[in-house]
Amino acid sequence: MGTKIILDLGKSEYLMWLFLKERDFNRPSMKEMVNHFDRNPRTIRRWLARLEDNGYI
Q: Whole-model pTM above 0.70?
Protein backbone atom coordinates (compact mmCIF):
# COMPACT_ATOMS: atom_id res chain seq x y z
CA MET A 1 0.00 0.00 0.00
CA GLY A 2 2.79 2.42 0.89
CA THR A 3 4.48 2.28 -2.50
CA LYS A 4 1.17 2.87 -4.25
CA ILE A 5 0.43 5.97 -2.15
CA ILE A 6 3.91 7.36 -2.81
CA LEU A 7 3.58 6.75 -6.56
CA ASP A 8 0.03 8.13 -6.75
CA LEU A 9 0.27 11.09 -4.36
CA GLY A 10 3.75 11.59 -2.98
CA LYS A 11 5.87 11.12 0.11
CA SER A 12 4.14 13.73 2.25
CA GLU A 13 0.73 12.15 1.79
CA TYR A 14 2.23 8.76 2.59
CA LEU A 15 3.68 10.10 5.84
CA MET A 16 0.25 11.50 6.71
CA TRP A 17 -1.31 8.12 5.95
CA LEU A 18 1.21 6.39 8.27
CA PHE A 19 0.52 8.96 10.97
CA LEU A 20 -3.21 8.26 10.74
CA LYS A 21 -2.74 4.49 10.49
CA GLU A 22 -0.84 4.50 13.81
CA ARG A 23 -3.92 6.12 15.34
CA ASP A 24 -6.39 3.69 13.72
CA PHE A 25 -7.38 6.49 11.32
CA ASN A 26 -8.84 8.60 14.14
CA ARG A 27 -7.84 12.15 13.30
CA PRO A 28 -6.19 14.11 16.05
CA SER A 29 -6.71 17.84 16.35
CA MET A 30 -5.35 20.09 13.63
CA LYS A 31 -3.03 21.65 16.21
CA GLU A 32 -1.46 18.26 16.96
CA MET A 33 -0.96 17.54 13.26
CA VAL A 34 0.52 21.01 12.65
CA ASN A 35 2.97 20.46 15.52
CA HIS A 36 3.85 16.95 14.38
CA PHE A 37 4.47 17.78 10.71
CA ASP A 38 5.57 21.40 11.21
CA ARG A 39 3.39 22.45 8.30
CA ASN A 40 0.64 24.98 7.69
CA PRO A 41 -2.94 23.79 8.40
CA ARG A 42 -3.82 24.47 4.78
CA THR A 43 -1.12 22.02 3.65
CA ILE A 44 -2.37 19.36 6.04
CA ARG A 45 -5.95 19.82 4.83
CA ARG A 46 -4.70 19.39 1.26
CA TRP A 47 -2.91 16.14 2.15
CA LEU A 48 -6.03 14.83 3.89
CA ALA A 49 -8.23 15.79 0.95
CA ARG A 50 -5.94 14.05 -1.53
CA LEU A 51 -5.90 10.89 0.59
CA GLU A 52 -9.70 10.95 0.87
CA ASP A 53 -10.25 11.70 -2.83
CA ASN A 54 -8.11 8.71 -3.78
CA GLY A 55 -9.75 6.34 -1.29
CA TYR A 56 -6.83 5.81 1.06
CA ILE A 57 -8.68 7.08 4.13
A: yes
